[in-house]
Amino acid sequence: MTTIDPTARVEDGAVIGAGAAIGPYCVIGRDVTIGANCKLISHVHVMGQTAIGAGCTVYPFASLGGAPQSLAYRGEPTKLQIGEGCTIRESVTMSTGTVGGGGITRVGDRGYFMNCSHVGHDCQVGNDVIFATSATLGGHCEIGDFVFIGGLSAVHQFTRIGPQAMIGGVCGVRGDVIPYGLVNGQYARLEGLNIVGMKRRKFTRERLAVVRSFYQKLFEAPGVFSERLDAVRSLAATDPAVAAILSFIDSGTHRPLCLPSGRTGENG
After folding, report:
1. Which residues form the domain of 129?
2. Is 230 a catalytic residue?
3. Are 32 and 46 in contact (CB under 8 A)?
4. CATH number at residue 121
5. For the chain, what is the mean pLDDT?
6. From which domain of life does this come (predicted)?
């Protein structure tokens, strides 16, 4: 049974799914779709062309579907799409897209967004991510599945973070982070592989050894990065994770690659 608190304001045209609960003082715009069995606890503002998937829980003072924080935005109708089963904690903000960025911000399923985290316009966020307190994405970022972003970390616009990467706390991420990468530092540097996360995804010891060996040859061996990259391409067939890392590197366009400390300037 759908329940809407009498203090909530739900504009005509909004679609509220079966079993949803809209708590006190929530404001739901006319172009919003709230999925089945969602729970908006109280004081939640959902606006714009925003769709929230089934089974999400949204905590007080979250603001979803606000206009993109872009000087190029001129009020065009753009969208925010949030997947199923997400937990969106207090004061989280997520913006709609911009025409220049494709017109839609997407957030996948089962994400956990801790208080004050932010998803900027035109970001594409995967499934099963965790954003710790005040983790922030600039516009146009691409975040893979199972990514963890530590508290107070900020990701530069147009940056990509590959699947299963882990970003430490208080990091300024200015370069693309490879899949399975582990990043730390005020100005984020690649420290190795997210071994804990890989074990949680059921990587065997044999697979871990293969990927570690590849990582060492690519990022820790002497010589110029481009030459090392060419040298390890033949290893793509040794493990799907190796192939994913190489494909990720090859597809980069906007931002340099996040490299280990002491490897500055090797990109290209």
Report:
1. 3-140
2. no
3. yes
4. 2.160.10.10
5. 96
6. Bacteria
